[in-house]
Amino acid sequence: MARSAIRRDTVLRLARATLSRPTAPYREGEVIAWIREFADGRPHLCLREDPDGNLELRRAGVPTNRSPLVLAAHMDHPGFRALRSRPRRAGGHRVDALFLGGVPLSSFPGARARFHTPGGEIRARVERARLDRKSGEKRIVLHTKEPVPGGSYGMWDLPRFHFDRARDRIEACAVDDLAGVAAILAMFDAVDRIDPSRRADVRGVFTRAEEVGFVGALAIAANRRLPAAARIVAIEASMALPEAPQGAGPIVRVGDRTSVFDDALTRAVSAVAQELAGPRGTGFAWQRKLMDGGTCESTAYQRFGYACTGMCLPLGNYHNVGRGGRIAPESIRLSDLVGMVRLFEALVREEARPRGGGKRDDPLRQRLEALHRRSRKELARSPFA
Higher-confidence residue: 314 or 368? Predict the structure, then answer.
């Protein structure tokens, strides 16, 4: 097996640079600027932006494939959008805002937030939260010392990024899904070392406003901005479960709460992971699970006919909801993140493998056909009873 080109310290550095960016649905500009900076500094890459602000990262000069491997992650995280603010007689300002994303209303009262404005950051405290029954919007009232311009976006007032080396744990305000973005960038940082022959047409897709209904992914799928035969792997940070714990490796996701993913593509990714793990299964830690804590972009892409599967990192404090419903940083294990990038690396090596002019045989089909050949004579000569 080829020596890995993935370096743990590089993955950590790129995770820090990515997860430290503020973001919210429809307010992904800081993340977009960072991905542009990343691509501009690497001549072997090129970046395209579609009419809806989604990004596609590709390898410069690599021949295109009718069935490229696409690694896709979203750039947003649940957050606030200020509508208006007005002064209060007792001092300070009342800010009326919407909250975009899936966080229970019971977690809001008393929680601290931070708005990002042209003049700098403004801290806030949530006073009330209610669901507008007619529109379905989460309506939030916050208190600030300064006025917040309408349209400003906000996040929870939590540490941007912290790495606990002793516990192998990354904590941040927005892990979902900036960790997926960071993992894809880490693979592309090393892609020419992974595939020096430059055969593999692998692409990174970064989408907007996933948290409010897969907005960017649906725009890509509905407008056929990827080849019809593209194989899409949606990358997520998904709620850790007792049977899918942190520290046990990245997860090949066979489905989500809503749908089951493409069988052939899921088996192909699983086979690559198993090859990394080795015959004893101890060479690489990975998991294969149905992660039904939520719905991911694979379901959206599949609705428009794309072959999709998923991969995810087990996530602590999903959507910033910690113990007792209190707002808290999200968390992942660095070892799981590095493992995900290593699995990307192995997928790219598989893509670059010469095929001899034909499609690689399906190992499962080969095994089942061999089993049938061995058993049919026994069926023919054995009585029913």
Answer: 314
For CATH 2.40.30, the residue range(s) in the chain are: 79-156
Q: Is the whole-model pTM more than 0.85? A: yes
Q: Which residues pair with 143 in a beta bridge?
A: 94, 125
Q: Measure Cα distances from 221 to 84, 94, 211, 305, 331 in Å.
A: 35, 40, 17, 9, 30
13-68: pLDDT as tens digits? 999 999 999 999 999 999 999 999 999 999 999 999 999 999 999 999 999 999 99
All CATH 3.40.630.10 domain ranges of the chain, comma separated, are 8-77+160-352
Give the residues across from 100 on adjacent strands: 79
Write out pLDDT tens, residues 165-199: 999 999 999 999 999 999 999 999 999 999 999 99
Distance (Å, whole) CA 347 – CA 266: 12
For domain 8-77+160-352, say whether CATH 3.60.20.10 is its number: no
The stretch 128-154 carries a mean pLDDT of 97
Query: Tokens 């596609």 map to which residue?
Result: 56
Per CATH, the number for 79-156 is 2.40.30
Give the pair of three-digit tokens for residue 242. 């007792």
pLDDT digits (tens, 9 = 90+) for 308-364: 999 999 999 999 999 999 999 999 999 999 999 999 999 999 999 986 433 456 777
Residue 65 · residue 82 · CB < 8 Å: no
